[in-house]
Amino acid sequence: MTIKKTQEETHLIYYCTFTCADWLPLFEITDFYCEIYSWFNLLRRNGNQIIGFVIMPNHLHVLICVKEQSINKILANGKRFMAYEIIKRLQNAANDEVINQLSLKVTEEERKRAKKHRVFEVSSDIKPCYHKWFLIQKLDYMHRNPVSGKWNLAPTYVDYIHSSAGFYELNEQHRMVSIRHYEDVELDISSSATDDVQQ
Questions:
Q1: Between residues 49 and 194, which one has the greater pLDDT?
Q2: How far apart are CA 63 and CA 126, in angstroms?
Q3: In what order do the strands lie in the sheet with 49-55?
Q4: Is 163 within 8 Å of 57 (Cβ atoms)?
Q5: Cα 145–Cα 149–Cα 150 angle in degrees, nearest 5
Q6: Most buried in the list 10, 14, 174, 196, measured by CB within 10 Å?
Q7: What are the beta bridge partners of residue 12?
Q8: Angstrom distance (rounded) from CA 76 to CA 116
Q9: Complete domains list, the chain, with CATH
Q10: 18 with 75: CB under 8 angstroms?
């Protein structure tokens, strides 16, 4: 499920997921959506491209076309920045209950390194998109996430504002971040469903 090895390939689209600690709805609690868009736009300024995304209350799915930096480093830097900002917002709101819960997630080894809170689960899910069918499958999955299972975040998945669904389904550019259609990215991606299957 979670890929822990370092992904070194660049000029490639990656499907990435990371989750708030204990699946707490930290993005919702701290109204953090604008900060995530700021991170997306920083990635774009650094030459990467946002192919698709959905920001859920407690986790994030994003398809990133990486230019030169490793995807592991991109996510690590992004999570570090977000963790700091989330704790800052919780402190400003005097949300001691959640702050204490995040403090309890820190291991003894991490405390020795002066870490005080764990905001995100340790590992991120990173999958390279070598095949067009796999990329489309992940886009469809992430776009339908807000109305799947226990979630009922919008009347339809296209109506959910923290998603690229409107871009792909209604041809409407997102108001907070410029999305690049996967068909406009010049990559050597196979369209064959008979190639090696990715799980």
A1: 49
A2: 10
A3: 49-55, 59-66, 12-19, 125-128
A4: no
A5: 105
A6: 14
A7: 66
A8: 17
A9: 12-184 (3.30.70.1290)
A10: yes
